[in-house]
Design goal:
Layout: H1 2-17, E1 26-29, E2 32-35, H2 40-44, E3 53-56, H3 69-74, E4 79-82, H4 92-104, E5 110-113, H5 119-131, H6 136-146, H7 151-163
Parallel strand pairs: 2-5, 3-4, 3-5
Antiparallel strand pairs: 1-2
Helix pairs in contact: 4-5, 5-6, 5-7
Length: 171
């Protein structure tokens, strides 16, 4: 009975972390934020929060995607970019596309998201380390605030770091 109660409490705490207008939100800097899928109302508030661009890293066909997100974001005068990263098969081409977009958005306040901030936190980590030269240990803290990467994403992260001659073993 006690084990069941503890399990239910742990599950409730984990679920609470994924609720809210933008689940798993991590403010990386004043100009960069990552999260899971924001609500419609939250997306409508992005301009008021000073954001200038949204980068969405999941296919627009995933279950909880908001089909009207490009219109909501664009209607505020913000740039909307979708890079549909396959959850099961992230690639170097996905990272290259993300890096090109982030470089083009340099100097702007950017909101990067996916469904649960798993793709987003991982891609932003790689961008910070590979492109911006941030210390991997420091950048990794933001990933850990969102999740512990599964085997697929850990392998992708490690392979990308190695391809750029960065010696860092996450986890």
């Amino acid at each position: 009975m006690r084990a069941t109660s503890l399990l239910l409490a742990a599950l409730a705490l984990r679920a609470a972390a994924h609720e809210g207008p933008a689940p798993n939100r991590v403010d990386i800097s004043p100009a960069l934020t990552t999260s899971g899928q924001p609500t419609r109302a939250f997306l409508q508030s992005l301009k008021a929060q000073g954001f200038e661009a949204v980068v969405y890293l999941a296919p627009p066909t995933v279950g909880d995607a908001l089909a009207e997100e490009p219109r909501i974001v664009g209607g505020q005068g913000l740039l909307f970019v979708n890079i549909p990263v396959d959850w099961e098969r992230p690639t170097g081409a996905d990272f290259d596309a993300f890096t090109r977009v982030m470089q083009a958005l340099a100097g702007r306040k950017v909101y990067v998201h996916c469904q649960m901030n798993f793709r987003a936190s991982s891609m932003v980590f790689l961008h910070r380390v590979v492109t911006l030269g941030d210390p991997p240990e420091k950048a990794w803290e933001a990933v850990q605030r969102a999740w512990v990467p599964n085997a697929t994403w850990r392998a992708f992260i490690v392979a990308t770091l190695r391809a750029h001659r960065i010696a860092f073993e996450p986890l």
